[in-house]
Design a protein that fits this description.
Blueprint lengths: L1 E10 L2 E11 L15 H9 L6 E6 L2 E2 L19 H4 L9
Antiparallel strand pairs: 1-2, 1-3, 3-4
Length: 96
């Protein structure tokens, strides 16, 4: 079970995600819909632990998801629209 409770994320004075709460049970499919700038990508990044929330919590099977946890994040699959995410990571075996 994936649960997001009262997620809030700000970038300076701009509120990107404001008190978002949802639950996805095993076997369910969930979609985030909204116009550009609605906070969908930021919410997904919070759920995956790629960003930290200013308020609220994300749990997977009761385990908290945060930037420092790996057990909960190992249960999440994320395929970004572009591969710029991987440019933030380094791997000594891949030439840059």
């Amino acid at each position: 079970m994936l649960e997001a409770a009262h997620l809030t994320r700000r970038f300076g004075s701009r509120v990107a995600v404001d008190d978002v709460t949802f639950r996805v049970a095993p076997g369910e499919t969930y979609g985030l819909l909204g116009p550009n700038g609605a906070g969908k990508t930021t919410t997904i990044r919070l759920v995956c632990g790629l960003l930290s929330a200013d308020a609220g919590e994300v749990t997977v099977s009761g385990m908290p998801v945060s930037a420092s946890t790996t057990t909960a994040k190992a249960q999440i699959g994320y395929v970004p629209q572009d591969v710029s995410l991987y440019l933030l990571r380094t791997c000594p075996s891949i030439p840059t």
